[in-house]
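Example record used in the benchmark description.
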Amino acid sequence: MNTTEDTSMNDIRRVIVRTTLAVLAMGLAGAAAAQAYPSKPVRVVIPLGTGGTTDVPGRIVAQRLSEAMGQQFIVENKVGAGGTIGADFVAKSKPDGYTLLLTATPHVISANLYKNLPYNALADFAPVIRVASGPYVLTVHPSLGVNSVRELIALAKKQPGKIDYASSGNGSAQHLVGALFAHMAGIELSHVPYKSSSQAQQDLVAGMVKVGFPGTPIVIPHMKSGRLKALAVTTAQRSSHLPDVPTIAEAGVPGYEALVWVGMMAPAGTPPDIVNRLNGEIRKLLAAPDVQQLLASSGVDPTPTSPEEFGAYLKSEFDKWGKVVRDSGATIN
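Model output (structure tokens):
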């Protein structure tokens, strides 16, 4: 090999060495950044109302992350428009791990109901973890005079559009859970949206509306007092909190399934090391028995996923509820 060839080969080797060192440096820098994270308080945006099935688990997670990671994870409720106001805020935030979205099923429902959203419900977010999930409960006021799902369906067929069902608002999970039930059961129910879950449940307990889909913590005490009847749960399996209550599928509407899930996302472009660090920390806290008990009291159980699994789940939920919106004709009033 002549001198020119030797020089050329040496140049190539030097380029390869520099490139390898640069890649290693980037990897070490990313790992160091993840270990240093968080170095300041983190904002956890919850786009739904306080005290609900999303807010309570979100505050539990934020508190435990504060304790585990040495910085405050501060919850901020940015409510309105089916959760889209808070989601839009996070989508447009800097992707550095210091602004996170703690959201739920309405995230993918609203994306199918609201037209011209200023963000993409899937592409503009980096999935971190599904935190927990659980059922809604098909519940009726005793004055309606039905004791089973089949009796409710029979009555609704005799009185099309005359039986009201309450939800926590247009575009809420309760709205679409009810719309899916009515569509699959072949009945017509009248949707009555409220501004919050608590307002909807107050009128359901009072008998102002006859049907609702509240969470288990709302239903259980009113079942015991006789003020409400639980006809079925919305999940594919019975709930451990209501083991004697059948699923809607086994009680008369085969194939029905809907659940409330709670999950964390970050703005798209958030470094994978930070996403994975958050995923690992949340997995650890969800394994604690006291956290599991706290979550159960809000009607959900831990169902953690990897970021990739959560991303695939979000896509499947987006597609599922998009079909429900189209098939049921549900709209924002």
